[in-house]
Each structure stands twice: as C-alpha cells, then as structure tokens.
Amino acid sequence: MQAEKVDFGKVTAGLKTKSDKIRALSRHGVPTAEIARYLDIRYQHARNVLKEAGLHKVQDASASEMKPQQSYAWVELGPDGALVLPAELRARAGLSPAKVHVRLTDDGLEVLSQTAALRRAQAIVARHVPPGVSLVDDFIAERRREAAREDRGE
What's the pLDDT at 107? Predict the structure, then answer.
C-alpha cells in the first residue's frame, strides 16, 4: 500500500501514544520519514520505535544510480551549492521548475514542493483548531463586528 492512499487520521484514530501511531502507519506502508513528518517528531524517534518492533525496513542506497520507484538518491553538491536531483525523484516528490521550500532539520536538509509545504502548514494549523471551527468564518465575523463598531463611532 502506498502512503499517498493512506488516510493518516483514520489509521491513527483512537491511538493514544506516538509509538502506537508510528507502528500503525508503518503497517499501512507509510515510509518512516513521512511518519516522522506527520507526527512532527524526529526521524530517529520513528526509526527506533520501528526497529524495536521489527518493522523498520533498511533500504540499500546506490551511490551511482536511482532505481525505479526509489525514494532516495545520492547526488553531488556542486561548489556553488547546486544540487541536481534525478528526474524521477523530482517527479515523485512533485517538484517542478519552481520555488521549493528548503528547511534545515536536525538530520540535514528537507526539500518540499510548494504543495507539500502548504499541506504541512495546514496540518499544523489543523492540530490547533477544534473540529467544526472555521477560522475563516471566525475572521469574517470579527471583521464585521469591527466594521459595525466603526459605523457606530465606537
């Protein structure tokens, strides 16, 4: 099963600990790095939980080529800081000739497409907004109250 088709919320619903969520997502075929991003934890934490449970899958990276359907590649960093990413990897990550979001993490650099960065930001906000609450509706209502106060001269 591919991670793109897994509803992370459904898989983790009712699970109380991050470790339980890590194991459940892994059993649904979600890669360790995606589990760590979804749960907002370090990759090493997810890896350690999976390794202890016998669920961690070690991937064999080849320094010279990228195998079909592979999620990683060794690339050379040019003297000017340029990275040339393999076409298949860019396509699978949704990266096109456009701006990408690059973030320094404890483990290195993370490169996200604009769509992926937006999805992550939305997920972060969603964790802090109670179900059924619309921030847009709340904002519009507040702006209307403010305009009404101004109209009354308050």
Answer: 86
In a domain, 88, yes or no: no
Position 128 in a domain: yes
Angle at 64 between CA 61 and CA 69, to 5 degrees: 55
- pLDDT of 65 reads 47
Considering the domain architecture, whether residues 52 and 102 belong to the same structural domain is answered as: no
Alpha carbon of 132 to those of 119, 125, 135: distances in Å? 19, 14, 10
Cα 36 off chain centre by: 8
**Mean pLDDT lowest for which of 62-66, 101-105, 109-113, 133-137?**
62-66
Residue whose structure tokens are 């997920």: 123
Domain range spanning residue 8? Answer: 1-58
Cα 116 to Cα 99: distance, rounded to the nearest angstrom: 12
pLDDT of 68: 53
CA distance 76 to 84: 7
The tokens for 144 are: 């209307």
Work out how many domains the chain is built from and give that number.
Answer: 2
Q: Per-residue confidence at 93, pLDDT binned at 50, 70, 90?
A: confident
